[in-house]
Design a protein that fits this description.
Chain lengths: ~70, ~300
Amino acid sequence: MSNNSTASISQARKAVEQLKMEACMDRVKVSQAAADLLAYCEAHIREDPLIVPVPASENPFREKKFFCTIL
Amino acid sequence: MCDQTFLVNVFGSCDKCFKQRALRPVFKKSQQLSYCSACAEIDGKVIVWDSFTTNKEHAVTMPCTWVMACAYAPSGCAIACGGLDNKCSVYPLTFDKNENMAAKKKSVAMHTNYLSACSFTNSDMQILTASGDGTCALWDVESGQLLQSFHGHGADVLCLDLAPSETGNTFVSGGCDKKAMVWDMRSGQCVQAFETHESDINSVRYYPSGDAFASGSDDATCRLYDLRADREVAIYSKESIIFGASSVDFSLSGRLLFAGYNDYTINVWDVLKGSRVSILFGHENRVSTLRVSPDGTAFCSGSWDHTLRVWA
C-alpha cells in the first residue's frame, strides 16, 4: 500500500514540475495568433492549386481528354 | 498503457471470416479483436504506387500481420513501415527487378507494443516512431540506436507529425488519453499539452506555417490548436457528424482542412471560418487515412474498402 502511494506521489510531483514548466511559457493573445494564421493563408492562397485552380494544361490530374481522332 | 505480455491460444470464431479456428488476439486501442491466422496474415503488404498512372511501383510483403504505419524518406529512396510486429523497418527502394526488397530490410525501432505511426525527420538518417505502448521514440537508421524517447502519454499514442520548418525540432503527438502533446526532440521534454478532445485523437497535422496544428478525433470533431497562444482556437464539427475523424490534412495554403471520417465521407472545412465547405462521397467503407500531396495539387484517401482514391 505504501508502494502505491509513493509511486503516485512521485507521479504527482512530476506532473507538478511539468505544469510549472508549462505555466512559465510566454503566450501570445489569440487575436494576434489568429491574425497571423489569417495573414499566412492570405499570403499563400495563390499557390494553392486546390483553391485557385491551375490552368487545365498544367494540372496533372485533369480529365484526360482524348488526343487522337478516329479516322 | 498496453504492454503486450504473452500470446494465448484461444479457440473461437474469427472476427473477420467467422470460421472456427485458433485465434490470435490483437489489441488495438485497448479493444480486442480476434483473427484466425489466415485472416491476420493476409494483408501484410506495403505498396508504392505511381499516382498519375496508377501503376504499382514496388510491393513488399511484410513478414507479419497488419502494417499500421508507413512513411517515405525525404530523398524518396527508402520507405519505413511497421505495425503489429512492434518494429519499424526501413526498406531501401530499388527499381532493379532482380533485387528482393525484403532482403534489404533493416529493423530500426523496437517498441513493446504496436507501432502506430512513423515518420522520417528532415533527413533519411533518423526516424520518429509512435507506439501503442504510450511512448514516442527517435531512432538512428544506420545503427538502429534509440536517440531519444518521449514519455508522458497515459495511453496508446496513435499519431504524430513533425513541425514543418527546416530547423524545426518539435513534433506533436496525439493519443488515446485525449491529449495532444508537443515535444522538443532534443531534450525529450513535453513542451505543451492540449486536452480538450472528448475521445481518442486519431490524427494530428501541423498547419503549414508551423504555428498551429489540427487534430481529428473519435469524438467526431476536428480542432485547431494554436501553439503560440497555447490553446484551442477552433472546432470543426456539426451535429450531423457523429462518426470519428480518422485522418486530417491541410491544403497547401492552410485554408482548407480535409478530414476523413468513419462514416465513409471526407469533409472539407474552411479553416478560418470554421464552416464546412464540402463533403466528398466515394468510399464504400471507413476512410482510414488521408494525405495532401507535397505540391498541393491533389490529395489521396485510403479506406477499408481496399481502395486508395486521389482527389483533385
